[in-house]
Write a structure and sequence with these properties.
Number of domains: 1
Order of helices and strands: HEEEHHEE
Distance between the termini: 22 Å
Largest sheet: 5 strands, antiparallel
CATH architecture: 2-Layer Sandwich
Number of helices: 3
InterPro entries: Histidine_triad_HIT, HIT-like, HIT-like_sf
Protein name: HIT domain-containing protein
Oligomer: single chain
GO molecular function: catalytic activity
Organism: Orlajensenia flava
Radius of gyration: 13 Å
Strand content: 15-25%
Structural class: alpha+beta
């Protein structure tokens, strides 16, 4: 059996994280290695989907909730302006294969999101 993802371990409160939003189906935390002044990560509580395409095909309502949560967090942390980034696949820099989105704002001129 595969090791639990870092997001599963955060959900299970096995590793610390600064949680900024939580619903029955979505969790959002501060990124531990921020690439911008505002850098949050939002992910579904299910590990069923490895990337955003799988999530969109399998549960579009959950994807919509994830995006809505991102907007709410951007409203709170970044005056509503944000970049929402999904890395999909190893060649795109995805290293955690539990779908998640990066919410970034401020100082984004040279932001790179490789390695997650």
């Amino acid at each position: 059996m595969a090791e639990p993802s870092v997001f599963r371990r955060i959900m299970d409160r096995e590793i610390p994280a600064t949680i900024v939003a939580e619903t029955d189906r979505v969790l959002a935390v501060h990124d531990i290695a921020p690439k911008a002044p505002v850098h949050l990560v939002v992910f579904p509580k299910t590990e069923q989907y490895a990337n955003v395409a799988e999530l969109a095909a399998g549960d579009p309502a959950l994807l919509a909730e994830l995006v809505s949560t991102a907007q709410s967090l951007a409203d709170e942390y970044a005056d509503g302006s944000f970049r929402l980034v999904f890395n999909s696949g190893a060649n795109a820099g995805q290293t955690v294969f539990h779908v998640h989105a990066h919410i970034l704002s401020g100082g984004l001129e040279e932001t790179s999101l490789g390695g997650e």
